Amino acid sequence: MQVEVRLDPAHAEPKVIILTAGMTDEVTALVNQLTQEAPAMLSGIRDDKLILLDEKEIIRIYAAEDKVFATTSRGDFALRQRLYEMEERLDKRSFVRISNGEIINLKKARGFDLKMTGTICVSLEGGLVTYVSRRYVNRIKQVLGV
Fold first, then answer.
1. Nearest residue to 74 via CA among 89, 96, 95, 59
2. How many angstroms separate the CA atoms of 90 and 57, rounded?
3. Cα dihedral 94, 110, 118, 141 sign
4. Do the Cβ atoms of 143 and 98 come closer than 8 Å?
5. Mean pLDDT of 90-117
6. What is d(CA 55, CA 108) in angstroms, rounded to the nearest whole number?
7. pLDDT-derived band of residue 38, with 50, 70 and 90 as boundaries?
8. Three-state SS string across the chain, please?
9. Quick check: 33 pLDDT over 80?
10. 99 has which bridge partners?
11. Considering just the CA atoms, what is the radius of gyration of the chain in Å?
12. Quick one: which of 19, 50, 100, 108 has the most CB atoms within 10 Å?
């Protein structure tokens, strides 16, 4: 992809024009990213306190006991959103679903063990270990370029 920036004092507000031969997933993702409003703050609950969370600090998001939790270096926080809502909200370049009940932050992944037949073992920051379910193995391999 080529990127060109032109400075023009006549334009008070930035204008983005995309020139392409056809719509691709990359172009669609770029349009979606440019047209999205700034995301609302993400908050988690722990010990009856509402804590603001930065998307960058999230290691994983998982479902357990009919609730959704975000794991950070500060611990686990209960979220009010459902897992599919979090999947839609989070940056698709950093977060990927690895099972029906879990989303991981690829930037917090330390390694992927491909030795196991039919699944992938993921080592995450903070010594966490989780597994990609068989249903999501091909998607993860595609994201990793394997």
1. 59
2. 12
3. positive
4. no
5. 90
6. 11
7. low
8. CCCCCCCCCCCCCCCCCCCCCCCCHHHHHHHHHHHCCCCCCEEEEECCEEEEECHHHEEEEEEECCEEEEEECCEEEEECCCHHHHHHHCCCCCEEEEECCEEEEHHHEEEEECCCCCCEEEEEHHHCEEEECHHHHHHHHHHHCC
9. no
10. 102
11. 18
12. 108
Quick one: average pLDDT of 105-114?
92
Architecture category of domain 42-144 in CATH: Beta Barrel (2.40)
Check pLDDT > 80 for residue 57.
yes
- Measured between alpha carbons, how far is 39 from 29 in angstroms, rounded to an integer? 16
| Alpha-carbon dihedral sign for residues 79, 81, 82, 86 | negative
